[in-house]
Amino acid sequence: MAGTLYLCATPIGNLGDMTPRVIETLREVDIIAAEDTRNSIKLLNHFEIKTSMTSYHEYNKIEKADYLVEQMMQGKNIALITDAGTPAISDPGEVLVQKCQQAGITVTSLPGAAACITALTLSGLSTRRFCFEGFLPSDKKEKAVVLKDLKEESRTMILYEAPHHLVRTLTELYETVGNRRITLCRELTKKFETIMPTTLEDALAYYEKEAPRGEYVLVIEGKSHQEKQEEEQKQWQAMSIEEHMAYYEKEGMDQKSAMKQVAKDRGVTKRDIYQYLLQK
Question: By percentage, how much of the chain surpasses pLDDT 90?
Answer without folding.
Answer: 78
